[in-house]
Amino acid sequence: MRVLMIAILMLGGSPADAADLGRLLPADASVAPWQAQGPPSRYDASTLSRFIDGGAEVYLQFGFARAVSQEYVLADESVVCTIYEMTDVEAAFGVFSYFRTPGKTPLPIGDGAFVTDLQLLLRQDRYFAIIETYGSTARADAAMRLIAAQVSEQIGRKSGEPTMLARLGRDRRVPFSEKLLKGRLAAEALFETLGAEIIQPAPADTLLVASYVASIGSIRVFVLVCDDGRRAAQSWHSIPGALEKAGYRDVEARDNERAWAKNGSTLLVRRSDATLTFVIGAASVSEARTLLDGTAS
User: Fold this and answer.
1) Average pLDDT for residues 275-294, to the nearest whole number?
2) 278 and 193 in one domain?
3) Residue-range definition of the domain harbouring residue 132
4) Helices (H) and strands (E) in the chain, counts
5) C-alpha separations of 270 from 69, 259, 265, 288, 291 in Å
6) 130 membership: H or E segment, kind and range
7) Which of 57, 142, 166, 217 is deepest in the core (most CB within 10 A)?
8) DSSP assignments along 182-239, one per residue
């Protein structure tokens, strides 16, 4: 065992890398008086849809490896812990950010966590966990937090934010508003925000999203990182026509930067190599450009 542990550390891994995913689940002794109810359930990409019917696609789009789920019981109460092993840190952050919405209480566990009355979501390294209950009681809430802390301890290694988030400027950024989306999820986010089908991101493309404090309300920034510069160029040239059909009015054009207006707000789009950056909801072109100049692209 000592030789195996040394080999894992030399390769830059952790005990969780080589062990069965179920080893990340808390043992009964660490969450007493709660007890595991039966053996854990295990899922891979071919069986995940049986576990979360209609929701498996979200995990698969980001990059899913496998999952394990265990129910813990105490009297007539139940708490279920499901741990998803994603393909990398970006995938774990992506699915975590997809489910994160404003108003949820952040927790200092792992690389990030938040809690509601019935659910606690945790991300750490390449793992994403959901701990949930079906009864909003103080005892169940305490159990969710205890189980999350135990899972975090078992994972051990932390990775912080994905390096790609550095493309989103920090100045005036609304805390916990960041999202990282892939493929169809990225296309849907752009369409829902702009009301125009301006691009169909490929599975390998990444869309970063964040909100920023503005003079009036907030501004949203979308950074679309394409895996192919030619596709980014083609999309850039198709944007004006798509926005015109959606009712946007062209107000300014520069090399690799254009601005439109609709319903009193400004949309600014800038192209840089394989990246398209959108500033949405600014009061003016100058406000959008000031914010964009503080956003790495």
Assistant:
1) 90
2) yes
3) 2-155
4) 10, 15
5) 44, 9, 17, 11, 12
6) strand 127-133
7) 57
8) EHHHHHHHHHHHHSS------TT-EEEEEEEE-SSSEEEEEEEE-S-HHHHHHHHHHH
pLDDT tens by residue, 214-242: 877 789 999 999 888 888 888 898 899 99
User: DSSP per residue over 233-294, as a string?
Assistant: HHHHHHHHHHHHHTT-EEEEEETTEEEEEETTEEEEEEEETTEEEEEEEESSHHHHHHHHHT
> Using CA atoms, how far apart are residues 37 and 79, in angstroms rounded to an integer?
10
Q: What pTM, to 2 d.p., does this model score?
A: 0.87
Element (DSSP H or E) covering residue 139: helix 138-155
Q: Calculate ∠ Cα 45-182-101, nearest 5°.
A: 95
Conformational region of residue 196, where left means phi above 0, alpha means psi within -120 to 50, and beta covers everything else? beta
Same domain, 112 and 73: yes
Report the amino acid identity of residue 7. A
